[in-house]
Amino acid sequence: MHSREIFNIVKARRESLNVTQETLAQLSGVALRTLKQFESGKGNPTLQTLQKLGDALGLEVTVVIKNKGINA
């Protein structure tokens, strides 16, 4: 999944719950500036930030690492 898809999911979920960016920032412990950048498609959130937002929005954050057959 690409970053833009993640941004869209978080924003859509927040809007479907009628939660403002300010409220989500408070509930998740993520800075409002960070959240605004994230929703506008800028920045590169850490897994910890994604987890905080997911927890506040009732979303599950899962990481999958696949071997693409590249030898290091």
Automatic annotation (TrEMBL):
Protein name: XRE family transcriptional regulator
Taxonomy of the source species: Bacteria, Pseudomonadati, Bacteroidota, Chitinophagia, Chitinophagales
Domain HTH cro/C1-type residue range list: 10-64
Domain of life: Bacteria
Signal peptide coordinates: none
SMART domains reported for this sequence: HTH_XRE
GO molecular function, one term: DNA binding
Cellular component, GO, one term: cytosol
Keywords annotated in UniProt: DNA-binding
Annotated organism of origin: Chitinophaga lutea
Cited Pfam families: HTH_3
